[in-house]
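Running log. JK asked me to keep both predictions on one page so they can be read side by side. First protein, sequence followed by its tokens:
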Amino acid sequence: MKFLLVFDFDHTIIDENSDTWIVKCAPEKKLPNGLRNSYQPGHWTEYMGRVFVYLGDNGIKEDEMERTMTTIPFTAGMVDLLGFIGENKELFDCIIVSDSNTVFIDWILKAADLHKVFDEVFTNPAAFSSAGYLTLQNFHAHHCAKCPKNLCKRKVLKEFLDKQLERGVSYTQIVYIGDGGNDLCPVLFLKKDDVAMPRQGYTLEKKISQLAQDLSPVECSVLVWSSATDIMSYLKLLIKE
């Protein structure tokens, strides 16, 4: 009996968007209009690449970026929830699937000593160049028309489950915890015994509600959460069963 917990990162584990938070490092804490307006839908990673070049050009160094990123608040109750999961790792496998990047997630989890809770983190690879610029790559290529071109979370989840099966690991239930539009694709992949936990008032919850109104509801159960305490209550029930 083992459960798989799948977490999004921005607006789920942390209560902000890590990619927009980094702008606090920029001169006057804002980006020039030309750069801000250069974003094209579905091409967020390329846009962030330009943001990182701008920060590098303005002499923003790695240690300053790290200091800024580790001030991001966690979502209410999240530190307690992750502590609880960490104490029950024999029951829970736990992964992050996020459109953030490896550097940001690593900094934030390590500063809070929460990195050991997660078995794997699937996100866009990032690294500092020899010139001290943060560089970013797409996580993978995929053929899903619904997802941004750098990341289809359904593909990540499916490949992870296939790999686990090869190792002889299967899960009693998958619990998917997220908030954004790009979390809908993996939620549609979940089966009837699984649970989607969309954050209250965010895009994922609205999209799931819309599907139900269109009479094509998702197959899995849906439990809305507003603080991580709600998620913990559910996991405690799971363990009792």
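And the second, directly underneath as requested:
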Amino acid sequence: MDSSILHVYEDEIQSLEEEIQLLAEKYEESQQESTFFSDEEILMSIKSFQREFQGESKGHECLSDLKVQLESLQTDLSFLMKFTGIQFTSHCKKTVEKTRNRTVQKHRLSGNCHSLSFQLEFQLLEMQNKENVTAVITDLSIVMESGEDSDMSKFVSSTEAHGNLSTFFRSLPCYAEWCEHRRCTFLHFK
């Protein structure tokens, strides 16, 4: 066999092995995401879809109900954004680990509140026992464009250390509003 033909075959084998590796990784990722739902939830979803498509009239009613629910959720979201001033611009969620009674998800959020933008990254650990589910936030990281404000830096550091997102989201609108007032005041005097 000619060495150039042998080299072509080796290159082809190498590219096929790389493609197999890539497809295996994609398959594993999709398997991890699909294990996020229990077998019971999957069966319930299948039965729900079957019921939805059994009759056209019932399907139209379900579709109109979904539209009403979507409009209601959009109204609620709009109200919350106006009320708090917080607007989320992106959210990414990835399941890192999934076992029978433990789930670890990595979340990445970004958004803004008035004129301040922020980015959050954290892991959500959900543990399930017989009675209830507990959720714990770990590895919280907050990045904000707050300039050189030492008070805000201290607050962010404390929030990251305690993993307390509710305190962060309760305090952020007030802080951002006063930052906006301060900015407008300084612009007025310039």
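Observation for JK regarding the second prediction: The first strand starts at residue 86 and ends at 98.
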